[in-house]
Structures are given as structure tokens and as C-alpha cells.
């Protein structure tokens, strides 16, 4: 491989895998994507991106940035364009629908900047050239060569593939991570339940406006309360209101193999029975049967390294987080930007297998602290929203201060600096 562009296998074609593939192809690096499903696909729910992730898209590829803006939706009111969320008192039982007390507002340069997941993925798929994606390829395990040979991927259908290096973008239940840690029974191989779950729904905007009022329907709102919180934001260029209703629980999730299950709406009413009329009205708008998502993460046993030889984990595979910062997918895009920039360094191809190992080692060293902090900070943030955080409880001033500080740590990070630091560390190993 020396002096030639390496051949990279990406396992998984979610947001991480596709963004990484596009970023690498743009840099002239050969890529194959192995996806277990029969086609690329995402669920029909909203996902919000902070300014750090939008900047990282630009670094990955200006085409990704453009594609994102084609499908992204911001708050609909011009004077709320920079609002991340208005944080409302969901327990305000005296206020009529749509008139809950505003507790505080967090702002950032683009405010809530959200996409319908499936629409964003469709845009990304358009940027992947033919011949790159291979479907119905569920990775079972990986074999490393003795020396400089190819890394082997073994799939569930009995087929194999080879590559100079493998990047596992295979999500929260990553096989790549389990292989790297030494087996399914090793701590960290499986994600853990955070004892929160979420109901999700999409409401036609006109209905939401009619029932909740224009401000509540068209701009991002977070309704806080004891042991639960509900967030809403517009997607589909303002045609749809996305709803996610989180609740804490003491009970175990019934089956860790299935992270979603269908639930009747009566459970949502029961969970949020102590919330005020606005939250009750949001629940009224949801479908009678809903998907309920268990919130798992990798926070109990963070990986000590994201790399092993010429194999590396990236995105949720490396650091799956609960979604309370609205930053999990965004941090995957930062990962992809750093990885693509490292692998494109001329010294990597020149140094052959040693170059790939070095790039993966530096990726791991540079990304671990920020990504694993996010996992822990997201747990804390979920508890802040639900008045369960130790030392804070229902103290609105303290909730505001802590949320602001934590969110700004995510949003203010500059991808150019993250990339520059990583490249400098790589040059120190490989020689400039
Ligand atoms: P995934 O999306 O899980 O993709 C993994 C891919 O790998 C899939 O296509 C899968 O089929 C494939 N795969 C898995 N195993 C194998 C295998 N063995 N072989 C081959 N292919 C395989 N993030 C935000 O930034 N903002 C938000 O607002 C936000 N909201 C969220 C709300 C909820 C309720 C949840 C649960 C998460 C939220 N997130 C949010 C987090 C975000 O969804 C994830 O961080 C992101 O989707 C992870 O992308 P990924 O590509 O790494 O993993």
C-alpha cells in the first residue's frame, strides 16, 4: 500500500458512515461501505444540529453542508432564529394551553437547526457514488493479518471482504466495538440502559398551530418537569412539528436486543399526568400508538481506545450518548471531519500500514476526552431537565447556568482547531 491511497472499509451506513465516506471520497481515498440493511435508511424523526456540527459538515465536504441546508429547518419566527430552546415550566398547571411560564432561553448562532432524519440521509446518499455501498452485509467479525497484509471482514452471509483498514460506524450495538474489546461478554461491548425512555411523534404543523398556538408549534420548546420533559421543534421546512417526550424510570428495559417498542398513548398520559395543560395538549396530538425508544448509552464502560491496529470505531460505535444535548449525531460529524483530515495527510499513505495505525491512534487520542465527556454530560443534562440533578433539583437559576455552560462547551468548539491539533500530533509521530 505504501505511497498509494489506502483502501478503507466502513462498516455501517448511518449518518457517521455516510458522512465519513463522502469526506474520504472527496479527498481521493478509496472507500467501500458495508451496511447490514437492504438499503440506506433512517427513521422518520427529527434531529437537531448545533453550530459545531454544521461547521464540521463544511470541513467534511461543502456538498454535505449544502445538502444539510437544503433540508434544514430553523425556528419559524424571525426573532427566534437564534433560539436553541425556550425552556418552559411544564408543571405550570394554572396557565392555559400555550401560555406556560417561560423559565429561560438558550441561544446559539443558528438556533435549533433540525432535519427530518430520513430526508437528510436521502441527501447524503445522493453524494455517494455508485459501486461504493454493499447492502445486506452484517459484519460478524474481523481478522487482522500477521504483517502488512489486508484486514479481513467476515459477514453473516458467509462472504468476506478485505481492506487496508476498517472503520466501524456500526452504531450503538457495534460489532466492531465488541470485536475490539475482545468479545460480547466484555464490559463496554454492550450499551447500557440509562433508565430513561422517549416517545416520539410528528404532528402536521397546521394542527399543532391550531391546538398549541403559533409560537409553541413553530419554534423550539422544552417543557421541563419532575422525572420527565417534552421537547418540540419544527422540521420539514416548518410543515411538521417533531415531538420527543422523555421519562425516567426505575424499571429495567424488558429486552436489550430491541431498543424500541410500540406503546399505547395511555402510557404517555400516565407518565405526564402531573404536567400542565400545554403538555396534555401536546400528548392529545400524538398518534394512539407510538414508538417508545429506550435510551441506552456507552457511559458505564467508556472505551479506553477507539483504535486497535488498523481498525477504529467512530460515531455511536465509539461513544453512543443519550440525546439530551441534541449533539450525538453532530459529534459523529466532528469525528468524521477529524478522521478524514488525518487519513488525507500525505504521510499516512507514504508510511503504509504504520501510517494508518498512527492516524487511528491519533484519532482516538484526540477524540476520546470530548466525546466521552459528552456521554456523561448528556446524562447530567437529562437529569437537569427532569429536576433530578443532585445539588440542583428544581432551582431554575442553577439549571440555566449549568445547561448554558455545558451546551456552550459543545457549540463553541472550532473544528479547524480540533483538526489542527490532531494533524500536529500525527506529524509528531510520522514526521512532517
Ligand atoms: P447509527 O445511526 O446507529 O448507524 C449505524 C449503521 O450501521 C446503521 O445503518 C446500521 O444498520 C449499521 N450496522 C449496525 N451494525 C452493523 C453490522 N454489524 N454490520 C453492518 N452494518 C451495521 N443527535 C443529534 O445530534 N441531535 C439530536 O437531536 C438527536 N436526537 C436524538 C434522539 C433520540 C431519541 C436518540 C436515540 C438519538 C438522538 N441523537 C441526536 C443521536 C443520534 O441519533 C446518533 O448519535 C446518530 O444517529 C449516530 O449515527 P451513527 O451513524 O454513528 O449510528
UniProtKB/TrEMBL annotation:
It comes from the Eukaryota. Keywords: FAD, Flavoprotein, Membrane, Oxidoreductase, Transmembrane, Transmembrane helix. GO terms for biological process: secondary metabolite biosynthetic process. The keyword Transmembrane helix applies. The chain crosses the membrane at residues 6-25. The keyword Membrane applies. GO terms for molecular function: FAD binding; oxidoreductase activity. This is FAD-binding domain-containing protein. It comes from Friedmanniomyces endolithicus. The lineage of its organism: Eukaryota, Fungi, Dikarya, Ascomycota, Pezizomycotina.
Amino acid at each position: 500500500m505504501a505511497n498509494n491511497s489506502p483502501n478503507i472499509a466502513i462498516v455501517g451506513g448511518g449518518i457517521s458512515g455516510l458522512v465519513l465516506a463522502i469526506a474520504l471520497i472527496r479527498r481521493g481515498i478509496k472507500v467501500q461501505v458495508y451496511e447490514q440493511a437492504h438499503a440506506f435508511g433512517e427513521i422518520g424523526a427529527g434531529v437537531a444540529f448545533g453550530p459545531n456540527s454544521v461547521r464540521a459538515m463544511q470541513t467534511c465536504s461543502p456538498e454535505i453542508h449544502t445538502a444539510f441546508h437544503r433540508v434544514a429547518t430553523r425556528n419559524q419566527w424571525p426573532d427566534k432564529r437564534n433560539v436553541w430552546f425556550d425552556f418552559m415550566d411544564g408543571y405550570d398547571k394554572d396557565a392555559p394551553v400555550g401560555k406556560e411560564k417561560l423559565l429561560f432561553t438558550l441561544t446559539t448562532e443558528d438556533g435549533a437547526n433540525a432535519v427530518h432524519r430520513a430526508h437528510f440521509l436521502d441527501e447524503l446518499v445522493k453524494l455517494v457514488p455508485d459501486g461504493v455501498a454493499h447492502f445486506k452485509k452484517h459484519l460478524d467479525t474481523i481478522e487482522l493479518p500477521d504483517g502488512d497484509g489486508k484486514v479481513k471482514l467476515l459477514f453473516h452471509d458467509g462472504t468476506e471482504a478485505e481492506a487496508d483498514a476498517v472503520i466501524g460506524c456500526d452504531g450503538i450495538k457495534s460489532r466492531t466495538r465488541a470485536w475490539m474489546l475482545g468479545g460480547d461478554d466484555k464490559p463496554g461491548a454492550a450499551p447500557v440502559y440509562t433508565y430513561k425512555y422517549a416517545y416520539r411523534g410528528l404532528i402536521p404543523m397546521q394542527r399543532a398551530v391550531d391546538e398549541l398556538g403559533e409560537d409553541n408549534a413553530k419554534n423550539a420548546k422544552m417543557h421541563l418537569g419532575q422525572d420527565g420533559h417534552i421537547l418540540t421543534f419544527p422540521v420539514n421546512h416548518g410543515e411538521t412539528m417533531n415531538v420527543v417526550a422523555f421519562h425516567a424510570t426505575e424499571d429495567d428495559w424488558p429486552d436489550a436486543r430491541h431498543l424500541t417498542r410500540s406503546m399505547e398513548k395511555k402510557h404517555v398520559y400516565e407518565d405526564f399526568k402531573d404536567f400542565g395543560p400545554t403538555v396534555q395538549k401536546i400528548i392529545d396530538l400524538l398518534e394512539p400508538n407510538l414508538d417508545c425508544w429506550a435510551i441506552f448509552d456507552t457511559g458505564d464502560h467508556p472505551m479506553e481506545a477507539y483504535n486497535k491496529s488498523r481498525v477504529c470505531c467512530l460515531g455511536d460505535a465509539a461513544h453512543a450518548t443519550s440525546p439530551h444535548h441534541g449533539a450525538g449525531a453532530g459529534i459523529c460529524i466532528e469525528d468524521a471531519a477529524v478522521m478524514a483530515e488525518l487519513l488525507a495527510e500525505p504521510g499516512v499513505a507514504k508510511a503504509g500500514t504504520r501510517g494508518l495505525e498512527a492516524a487511528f491512534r491519533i484519532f482516538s487520542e484526540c477524540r476520546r476526552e470530548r466525546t466521552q465527556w459528552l456521554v456523561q454530560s448528556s446524562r447530567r443534562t437529562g437529569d437537569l431537565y427532569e429536576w433530578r440533578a443532585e445539588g440542583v433539583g428544581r432551582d431554575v437559576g442553577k439549571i440555566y447556568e449549568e445547561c448554558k455552560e455545558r451546551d456552550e462547551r459543545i457549540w463553541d468548539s472550532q473544528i479547524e482547531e480540533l483538526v489542527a491539533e490532531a494533524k500536529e500530533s500525527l506529524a509528531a509521530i510520522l514526521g512532517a
